[in-house]
Amino acid sequence: WMKAMQNHSGLLDGVLAVTHPALYRAGVEVRRKLSMQASELRQYLTMWPSVFNAVQVIINRMTIHHRDVSGRPGWMDMLLSMGTYGERGVMSFRNLSVSVPYDTGSVVLVNSKVVIHSVPQVPPDRICYAFFMLDFVHSWVGQEDPGWSKITDRRRVP
């Protein structure tokens, strides 16, 4: 799975590097520190496909309105939707009063600790890869919190 996801995850990492460069750099640094501090993980870290240090696979189910608890308030999660849909998928952000299309191939970057989000039931077969970072992993290796994404952190393309 890790080898199969490397190309997809490279694209997702690129999106994070552009939208929240400090979080991307923190993720890279956490991998480096984990490799040094937990040598028994080194072989797995070389195969791990992303700067995100966790992934949850959600298959054929709705997700009720919720906030996630594993990250920090300024962090972003990346959701990748795959599979077949018999009807249009929608992702709802309750405290923003907005819904967005969430079809096959959708990538959603969400501050899931702050934004209440959900996906209603749709016909199978669908899968969501939810990539995120774990607060306790960053704390364990002593990685400083990169905080919120700031417009001044992004580079402008001429």
Characterization of this structure:
- The protein is of the alpha+beta class.
- The chain has a single domain, classed as Double-stranded beta-helix (4-Layer Sandwich).
- 29% of the residues lie in helices and 25% in strands.
- The chain is built from four helices and eight strands, in the order H-H-H-E-E-E-E-E-E-E-E-H.
- The chain has helices at residues 2-19, 21-37, 42-45, 135-141, and strands at 54-59, 63-66, 77-83, 90-93, 98-101, 107-110, 117-119, 126-132.
- The strands form two sheets. It has a four-stranded antiparallel beta sheet with strand order 1-8-3-6, with no helix packed on it.
- A hairpin with a 4-residue loop joins strand 4 and strand 5.
- The longest helix is centred in the first third of the chain and has 18 residues, at 2-19.
- It is globular.
- 26% of the residues are buried.
- The mean pLDDT is 87.
